[in-house]
Write a structure and sequence with these properties.
Elements lengths: L2 E5 L10 H10 L4 E4 L8 H8 L5 E12 L2 E8 L6 H28 L5 H8 L6 H10 L6 H9 L14 H10 L3 E4 L11 H6 L4 E6 L4 H14 L2 E5 L21 H15 L2
Parallel strand pairs: 1-2, 2-3, 5-6, 6-7
Antiparallel strand pairs: 3-4, 4-5
Helix pairs in contact: 1-2, 4-5, 5-6
Bound molecules: adenosine monophosphate (AMP), zinc ion (ZN) and fe (iii) ion (FE) (2 copies).
């Protein structure tokens, strides 16, 4: 048995469809996966529908972006009721805000002299929640940049000439929402946020765990978040944050060690949360 609890699909900014993600997991002999797209749960039902034929379990998940002290913080929701109306209302607002933000970034790129349109970006997103990677793909296809990363390095990175801040909910709101829809709230790749001093506040808000195992974590980081989890009586999870072959890092699925036990502790935590609501 092997697990990967952090995968993206074409429903957000991944390059594989939910079906292809399940097939890729089957090829790598991963039996429990979590589809954790940015701000959307649209890939879960499709993935679950094909998963059973491969003997794979798909845990419904979502990855929210948030901010604290102008630093990015990502919060994963696991075992959420992914079709809950309250959740869908939040996700709809986020999707609309992302589309407006993409329009502003496109306008900025047009002002610099690039001939691209929001419609092209929308088409590249194929109905997904629009992110900077979709704009990057259009710039790449039109030959305005040489590599995918150029889009970020030259224009769209935070602080870059066409970066626009994304609308986000506060960590408190996100954690409350995840609990309301039956899920567990996990601090995604905490080692990349530089917000360790904020951990006690997040724990007060009801945080359930830390994504201690993550491809971009050093061994020291993994160890540190396992320690934090022990200290606060929280759980740990892990995943590769794979965005498919056409992405910043290429294929990462299955490249991070995640102990199988994390799934059991996640299930128990979710049961506790649901009992207390
Ligand atoms: P957004 O949600 O629109 O802010 O876009 C964030 C996504 O862009 C991340 O999940 C990554 O997939 C991708 N990304 C961020 N920075 C870079 C970068 N420097 N190079 C390539 N992709 C990036
Ligand atoms: Zn992403
Ligand atoms: Fe993330
Ligand atoms: Fe992610």
């Amino acid at each position: 048995m092997s697990v990967d609890l952090h995968l993206h699909t074409t429903k957000s900014d991944g390059s594989l469809t939910p079906e292809q993600v399940v097939e890729a997991a089957a090829k790598r002999r991963i039996n429990i996966i979590a589809i954790a797209d940015h701000d959307t749960t649209a890939g879960i039902a499709v993935a679950q529908a094909v998963a059973s034929t491969h003997g794979i379990e798909v845990i419904p998940a979502v990855e929210f972006s948030s901010k604290f002290n102008s630093r990015d913080i990502h919060i994963l929701g696991y075992f959420i009721f992914h079709e809950d109306p309250e959740l869908l209302t939040y996700l709809k607002t986020l999707k609309e805000a992302r589309a407006e933000r993409a329009q502003e970034m496109v306008q900025c790129l047009r002002n610099i002299g690039f001939n691209l349109t929001f419609e092209e970006v929308e088409k590249a997103a194929k109905g997904a929640s629009i992110g900077r990677p979709h704009i990057a793909r259009v710039l790449l296809r039109k030959g305005y940049i040489e590599t995918f990363s150029d889009a970020f390095n030259k224009y769209l990175r935070r602080g870059g000439p066409c970066f626009i801040e994304k609308f986000t909910y506060s960590p408190k709101k996100i954690i409350r929402l995840i609990h309301n829809v039956g899920g567990a709230a996990v601090f995604a790749h905490p080692g990349l946020s530089g917000l360790d001093t904020y951990i006690p506040k997040l724990v007060d808000m009801g945080l359930d765990g830390f994504e201690a195992y993550h491809v971009d974590h050093t061994q020291e980081m993994t160890k540190r978040y396992i320690e934090y989890a022990k200290q606060y009586g929280l759980i740990v999870t892990g995943g590769s944050d794979d965005h498919g072959p056409v992405s910043k890092h290429g294929v990462r699925m299955g490249t991070v060690f995640v102990p199988n036990e994390v799934v059991g502790s996640l299930r128990r935590r979710v049961q506790e949360i649901r009992r207390s609501f």
